[in-house]
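Minimal example, chain plus zinc ion.
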Amino acid sequence: MSYSVELPLDDGFLRRECPSCERQFKWHHGPTGERPDGAVDPAVYWCPYCGETAPPDHWWTTEQLRYVQERVAGGAIREIAGEFNRSLGRQRNSFVKFSMSYDEPEPPSALHEPADMVMVEPPCHSWEPLKIAADWPKPVHCLICGRQFALA
Ligand SMILES: [Zn+2]
Ligand SMILES: [Zn+2]
């Protein structure tokens, strides 16, 4: 079984959370138009704040993980109940019809994605812009190569 869950974007940017320092930033979801042909996705990404690295699937925020789990839980219950009802429907000589009722969990309210961060472009990989906390006082690491750059 697979379910797709949509997450909101902020102007094309997806909220991310560093597994090391747990600070949040946003990266561009999918390649930007400026990305050169032949650019290869790195095996790990650098946290713009602390400079630690992690594989691409390690950057979910706590809210995103909870949201996805709640959405998938509702879908799974619906699937199981539907399967149960279908199997009962195949019994040709039954006198009594059974159906399984279930309490589906309330679908979680959609995640909200405010435009609450400022966009920065690393000089070394300007086609991979980031959105970071507006009050971040220190240099920022490039997502792709980890090189630090100072904010103007
Ligand atoms: Zn970090
Ligand atoms: Zn770079």
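The CA atoms of residues 14 and 118 lie 13 Å apart. The chain has one domain: 13-34+41-149.
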